[in-house]
Amino acid sequence: MSSLIVAIDRKLFNALKRLKRKNVKLLIFITATLNLILFVLYLHHYEHSSLQDNIVVNSLYSLFSIMQDADEDVITSAAILYHKLNFNTEAKWINRYYLHENLLTVPYGNRKNERLESINDLEFYDSDPRLSWSVYLNYLINNEENFEEMPFSWYDWMDFDMYNKLLSVRHSNENNFTCEFAFKPSFDFDTLKSIESALQERLFEFEHEKYDDRNTYQQISKVRNNVDIEKSCQTVPGGPFQLPFNVTTLVDSVRPEMYFINAKNYLLHNFNNPISITILEGGKNSYRVNIDQHDNSNMIQSGLLKQFVEEQTSKQSNRNKNIEFDHISFYENFLKTDIASKLRIEIPYCNKDIFNKNLVDLSIDDFAFDVAERIKGLRHDLQTFNNLTRHDLNYLSSLENSININPALAPKYFNEARNILQFKSLGHHRDKRFFNGPTTEGSVEYADRLNSLIRTFQKFTISNGIVSWLSHGTLYSHLYDGLAFPWDNDFDLQMPISHLHYMAQYFNQSIILEDPREGNGRFLLDVGSSISVRTKGNGLNNIDARFIDIDSGIYIDITGLSFSSEPIPLNKRVSLLTADAMEAALVDETVKNPGDDIKNPELGAELAALTISELKIYVDEHPNEFATDQKKKIADMAKIEGKLPITSPSKGLTQLQRYLLNKRLQMVNCRNGHFSRFDMISPLSNSYYHGVPALIPNKVVTSLLKEYNLPANFDFLVYEGRAFEPKMKFWISVSNLRSAMNTAKDQNLEYIESTPDTLSFNDLLRAIKNLIKIGSHDYLSAFFNSLSMTNYRLKELEIMYDDSITADEKQIALQYLRTTVGPTISSPGKDPIIYTQEKNLWKSYEAKLSEEEKADIILYVEVNALNNFWEKFSDLYNNRLYDASGEVNLNEVGLDLFHNYKEQGMNIFAKDPNIN
Ligand SMILES: *[C@@H]1O[C@H](CO)[C@@H](O)[C@H](O)[C@H]1NC(C)=O
Ligand SMILES: *[C@@H]1O[C@H](CO)[C@@H](O)[C@H](O)[C@H]1NC(C)=O
Ligand SMILES: *[C@@H]1O[C@H](CO)[C@@H](O)[C@H](O)[C@H]1NC(C)=O
Ligand SMILES: CC(=O)N[C@H]1CO[C@H](CO)[C@@H](O)[C@@H]1O
Hints:
It is globular, with a radius of gyration of 29 Å. By secondary structure, it is of the alpha+beta class. The strands form 5 sheets. The protein has an 8-stranded mixed sheet. Strands 5-14-15 form a 3-stranded antiparallel sheet. It contains 36 helices and 18 strands. 44% of the residues lie in helices and 9% in strands. The relative contact order is 0.10. Bound molecules: 2-acetamido-2-deoxy-beta-D-glucopyranose (4 copies). One 2-acetamido-2-deoxy-beta-D-glucopyranose is lined by residues 394-395, 398, 504, 508-509, 527, 529, 531.
């Protein structure tokens, strides 16, 4: 440790003293209840007054449950909680989940905190992942012998918090809950008051102030919508788990807090069950469990919970009647059973080994997929062997439908909650079915959700050998620090068309569950209904598939790349094709004069066998078969067909010729007309993104330049109100940066001499201290928690973009970095469910603490985190971050962007790095 380590100032010293005084009691408590090892660890912890050591931290967390209830330990347990909440992103729960204290204790409503006698008295419950995992895994293990399918209810696998609040006051508000109520654009003022007075708390937070008085309420009550309530809703009897109405059509033209109620009601009563649940084991294996398609009873209605409780009760000794839902032990038992090996998926066409190599060579054949041939093969298997799974059958029927869809007539598949009223278009980025209230973009929770989304998707693809790579804005964000841009609201990935098909066949309509030891993410993999269409067509299906967070509606957009007849646009920023290459392709006989025997593989059957001009003629002859907007679209498309800018190589070619030209030039495209040349993609390189392995295209710079004004320098940057500070390797809001730099020369903050774009190392420490002083808590935790990721990415950049070493040398260093440092990167964000739980717990602690105590705890924990953080930064500064005795001394290899980005980072993004 050097003098750079922050000095503990007087305030902290006092806080520490106070904490230690409290601690005397704690020590007595511990000796009485815990074994010696924990005790020694704990002592050790206080001697060094630091929450750094992992083992210490983990045993501290496990102490939390025990200390929670002992009043004198409020300060210590609050400090532990605050540390875990902000500076630990492991998916460990801070407490345990029990039948009586948790499930049977009413969380809100008229009977709040009441202990129910038995599960028969439950009229609603929160589907805590520990509860659902335990009950359903136990069911799987018990039915190992003849397992066919598992019961399913959306209620058991999603967040129904606000809906449960309504259920909790159902009895006193029975008359309020009508179809009328559900489709009002905003709450009726008196109804909301009546609900909340029974609830004794707010029903929701977002813009709740608008309902606070009649004046502000005026603004929102004036909006109108035009819903045919009779058509969209039925009155039904209310009861446990059921409000007395049934939303049969999803209508989003209401305010967000109303739409939330509608969407949840619709899910419960009218939405199909998924085909399967896929359980991930890290990034190693996927286990696919078939779901009962017809029943949507939850675990109480189906009797599964009752069975679980009875079984556990009979197993336990009489003195301990309290049942714990220890989901991890059920999970680990499940992995050991025979049923797990029966459910494990191996996709025959995929190779899991690709994630063990630096470079992944794709085959040009991966970008063409013969749909007709696949249909034939599956039909044959069905008839001969009768061995198609439900997933195979759903996929087959989708292909048979898709192959007959003319691109001009493909129905829109994905729907977003676009029409939500007074919501600033935020609904545009949420799947309509899984809207779950307005998680504000830019909030910690939103960032955590994005993090969980991409991490789980990556682990899902890795465990199946499915190839996909970062693209568009996602690839751009990866470039700087291996993390999403703070203003991002989704992710974009691309895959070869063949892998889109493999993924669709095996997992379309599966709920993908994250390994519960790593997080509580739950996602629907949803693939569109017209994936055999590979051109833009009517433009309604630019996205082929989505990986959707069912707890928020946020998603990853997935697009397949393939050969097609889409005309090649001329890119203004960067030319993907040389004039020579275009010339050569255009005079190629196979393109110029394709023989009569060459068929355009894009053309399907029926209307899909027609080109757009032929379709136009057909429409004119059969006007009654088409809707007005379809006719208009087809006419528009026919008009522009072939009329390309004079500079496009595809100009004047027939559809078949355009297809052959694209193939000849190795140009592949998505359905939104984004083109890449094959060698821009392959070989892919293995990198890390958000702490998990991720593939990136071969020519990153060219790929980015075709869409963005990528700056050539790795340097200080300002964009969208955020600044990228290369020493921090992180995006910081400009207003936070001003405070950190103390531009106002505030006496209470540290004085800083250097400027943001030439920040000196010592000033960096002062800047971070200022962030602590101004209480920029969310920023600090995001910044600290992503350090291992941003350090990794910095080193990777330094190696990849160093012109002074050969491609082979780079590969050796990258391999070493990836295999030795990569696996140690921690998640840059918390599991959203654990985050919410700890945040709510912290709120309850805040109520018990004085302002002074609270400030002391926060300061204490943050300075400790800073110590830990600064040690790593100092190691980086002193070139000893990495173990120097290994095969490659990573401290020395590559550019020195950390100390000298102004010079060394100049022009590095002007061209693609030479890495193979
Ligand atoms: C809600 O309506 C749908 C469609 O009419 C029906 O299938 C379903 O059984 C109804 N649910 C309830 C709880 O009445
Ligand atoms: C069905 O079984 C045959 C013969 O074992 C096999 O070749 C084929 O791949 C199977 N089809 C599917 C869809 O699993
Ligand atoms: C995915 O499943 C949905 C729902 O069954 C279906 O509409 C769609 O066509 C399927 N897509 C593919 C490619 O199988
Ligand atoms: C609008 C409406 O019907 N409000 C009622 C909600 O329920 C309470 C309690 O039954 C009534 O007092 C309100 O009139």
